[in-house]
Design goal:
Elements (H helix, E strand, L loop, with lengths): L10 H38 L6 H26 L7 H15 L11 H24 L4 H19 L10 H5 L4 E2 L2 E2 H19 L1 H12 L1 H5 L4 H27 L4 H4 L4 H11 L10 H21 L3 H19 L10
Antiparallel strand pairs: 1-2
Helix pairs in contact: 1-13, 2-7, 2-10, 2-12, 2-13, 3-4, 3-5, 3-10, 4-5, 4-10, 7-8, 8-10, 12-13, 12-14
Length: 340
């Protein structure tokens, strides 16, 4: 019933108002992660003082950033198509163990140098290919396939060194954790190079546009003759590459490819970083740039809580609260399936 003296809105006017409201909400959500990051930096700078706001701690943050960034980059593309990859810890552990076995080490006769890096990353890429292929052609949900491969990869990693991880003795790999340029650790530079590659793929290639299209409405690609299955498989291959690099750097930093140390507890923080940065679990929204902000949020939070001496179990609980809030804010509520 119309109120006297008030002209009722037409359907077109109501639709236009709805679109305007949604655009305002999207703008707020786009900048919310950046606001959170700035607020965290200001808070810890005020509470922790120079112990947090110092060049030494800045270097520590960059050092902590490298491997979580690589993991989150790979996971970002998978989430952008509306899928999920739970194989992270297993794949990274496998890559780390293979590097430790095939590089010059304290137990085995292998001394393949850079070839060990190629083997480790190649194995991770192969795992990504298998996960994507089984997922799309056998029509098994991605979380089930990747969850199974997490244990397969972990088993391969443990079997490769028979439960006794060798120490890496390759002189170049031993030196890498000690190297830095412009005050930034070499390992972080490697992660930044992979980041630039991922930005290029997302923003300047047809494949990057296809990823967004699959996450938004894959029927559009079907209509123009693009193979959606091929796009999905390539996404998991790209994720496998990022996880492989993370495993290699983790083993080099630790000095051995021990599965239970290099690749423990990486999956959950990576998922938190991706969704906290603004990438929607429903797919089609977000991307690599948003993930950078998300990783910075999680790294700064972890670093600040560590300086404050907060119990590690409480830190994990705080991460859980963040991912719950991020999911609630970024996932489109409705009938759309989150994991494809």
């Amino acid at each position: 019933m119309a109120v006297k003296g008030v002209t009722p809105l037409t359907i077109n006017e109501e639709f236009a108002i709805k679109i305007l409201q949604n655009n305002r909400k999207d703008k707020i959500m786009r900048f919310a992660p950046v606001i959170v990051l700035v607020a965290l930096v200001l808070f810890f700078s005020a509470v922790c003082g120079k112990e947090f706001a110092s060049l030494n701690n800045f270097g520590a943050v960059l050092n902590q950033l490298a491997i979580p960034l690589l993991v989150a980059l790979g996971l970002t593309f998978v989430i952008m198509i509306g899928s999920i990859d739970l194989s992270i810890d297993g794949t990274i552990g496998m890559a780390a163990s293979l590097l430790g076995v095939f590089a010059l080490n304290s137990r085995f006769a292998f001394n393949m140098g850079f070839g060990a890096v190629l083997i480790a990353i190649g194995a991770s890429v192969l795992v990504g290919f298998l996960i994507g292929t089984i997922h799309v052609y056998l029509r098994i949900p991605s979380f089930m396939v990747s969850f199974a491969f997490m244990y397969v990869c972990r088993g391969i990693g443990l079997l490769s060194y028979s439960g006794q991880p060798p120490t890496i003795l390759d002189p170049v790999m031993v030196m890498i954790p000690k190297l830095s340029f412009l005050g930034i650790p070499f390992i972080t530079w490697v992660a930044l190079v992979v980041l630039l590659f991922c930005i290029f793929v997302q923003e300047f290639t047809a494949f990057g546009r296809y990823i967004y299209a699959v996450g938004t409405d894959e029927t559009v690609l079907h209509a123009v003759g693009i193979s959606v299955n091929a796009v999905k498989v390539k996404v998991f291959v790209l994720a496998g590459f990022c996880f492989g690099v993370a495993g290699v750097l983790g083993a080099i930093r630790l000095g051995q490819g021990q599965v239970g140390v290099v690749a423990t507890g990486l999956m959950f923080p990576a998922q938190t970083a991706v969704v906290a940065g603004g990438t929607s679990l429903a797919g089609g929204k977000g991307g690599v740039i948003q993930t950078i902000v998300g990783v910075l949020i999680m790294t700064v939070l972890e670093n600040g809580l560590l300086i404050l001496g907060v119990n590690p179990y409480i830190r994990t609980g705080i991460q859980g609260i963040i991912i719950l809030a991020a999911v609630a804010l970024t996932v489109a509520h409705g009938s759309k399936v989150i994991s494809k």
